[in-house]
Amino acid sequence: MGQELTKMRKAARLDARDVSSYLGINASIVSRIENGRTAPTENEVDNYMRVCGVNDRKRRNEMLTICHDVLRKGWWEGYSDDVARTLMDCMWLESKALEIRAFAVSTLPGLLQTPGYAKAVMRANAPQATSEDLDRWLEVRMTRQVVLSRHDPIAFASIIDESAIKRLTSARLDAKPQLDYLIEVSRRSNIDIRVLPISEGVHASTGGGFEVHTLVSPYPQVAILPTAAGDLCVEGDDVQRVVQAYDSLLEVSLNVTESRKFIVAERDKL
User: Fold this and answer.
1) How confident is the model over 227-241, as a mean pLDDT?
2) Pick the residue with more confidence: 71 or 101?
3) How far apart are CA 49 and CA 53, in angstroms?
4) Which has the closest alpha carbon to 265: 204, 182, 185?
5) 247-266 b/e with 16+ CB inside 10 Å = b?
6) Strand (E) or helix (H) holding 268
7) Is the sign of the CA dihedral 15, 17, 22, 25 positive or negative?
8) Fewer Cβ neighbours under 10 Å: the N or C end of the chain?
9) Three-state SS for 233?
């Protein structure tokens, strides 16, 4: 929202004081709106476009749609005291996604995890967490998975590094139910699961896992890169580099049928 309003103002050759004078608000508030720190009202956005001379109906409708979404509360807001802000952002993105493409390296994708496996991963990542914390986080994780099974489910494609599956079976952390679940969901029309064999060695994403979200109009495509400090969200040209990495990984991954056979074979070892 802030980026688009800034583009409009600059295209109209106006400064923040011109806009603030027209809107009847302080210039510092205009700055906060453009920096994404303050959510504007629909009326402010409408007037912003008027002063910037934006008359295209489609463009105006898109901006008002974004404004409405910014101000709208989602189910995840009830967990704001329990999870990181970056995770809240990810859940918002999932709610707006048409398609998600993911590459998972050390653990299985969160949207495909069973409760037992998810809780074990959470406990390993946060050994000091209380049982109440784990239960609350698990509730969030399981609720997020609704996007895959609702009446208009998103398309979810995931490339899973073989090491993530091998680590699961060797640790025996809820392994059989988790692998059974992967096999089950891999047959859904909106889910595509591929396995990247270890034999492929060095590949296009030696830096770790990632996700690419294709969102509903008018939102841009977004990539999520997990880091030790939280998830990093990128847009624009940087997203295309992530998409290219995914496509390169797809070329050397097993196909859907081979991937399912691989998972079945690992499950049968247990």
Assistant:
1) 83
2) 101
3) 6
4) 182
5) eebbeebbebeebbebbeeb
6) helix 256-268
7) positive
8) C
9) strand
